[in-house]
Amino acid sequence: MTDKMREEFIEAFVKQFGFGRMAASSNPDAAGMLACAEWAWFASRETLASHGWESMETCPQHTEVLFYRSDAGVFSGMITDADHFMSDKERDEWSGTEQEMFDLDAFGFGDWGVCRCDGSERPTHWMHLPVEPEVKP
Asked: Which of 51, 82, 56 is nearest to 69 (CA)?
C-alpha cells in the first residue's frame, strides 16, 4: 500500500465513522478499528488484484461468470453450447445446424434473454461471480 493510498483510506474511514483525525489517533478504540479496517481494505485489494478480470482464454466452461466487453460493460454469461440451456421446445424449433447447437461459445444473459456473443460481440474478459450474501430472516 502506498502512502497516498493509506492517506486516502484513512480520510475516507474517519469521515465515514465521524472520527476527527485526533480522535482516531488518540482513542484506543478508534485506533484499533482503524487498524482492523485498514488491514481488511488492504486484504480486499490484494484479493481483487489476484482474482480480478482475467483473459477469456482462462474462462471455465459451463459455469456462469461475469463477462466484460468495452462497448457493453459487465454482464453475466457462460462459455457453453446452446443445448446447455435450451428447453425441449426450443430444441425442436432450432433453426440452426446441429453443429451450431453444440459449438462452445460465449452466451450472455440479461433482460433481453440469452444472446450468443461471437465475433465482435465476444467478451474480452471474465471474472467469477461474487459470493452471494448471507441473508437472515
From this structure: 56
For every residue of 33-85, DSSP letters joined together read HHHHHHHHHHHHHHHHHHSS-EEGGGPPBSS-EEEEETTTEEEEEEEE-GGGT
pLDDT digits (tens, 9 = 90+) for 6-31: 677 777 766 666 655 545 555 666 55
CA distances from 50 to 2, 28, 84 (A): 18, 33, 30
At 78, which amino acid appears? M
User: Which set of grid coordinates corresponds to residue 35?
Assistant: 487498524
Task: Provide the β-strand partners of residue 127.
Answer: 66
Task: Say if pTM beats, i.e. exceeds, 0.85.
Answer: no
In this prediction, residue 114 has a pLDDT band, given cuts at 50, 70 and 90, of confident
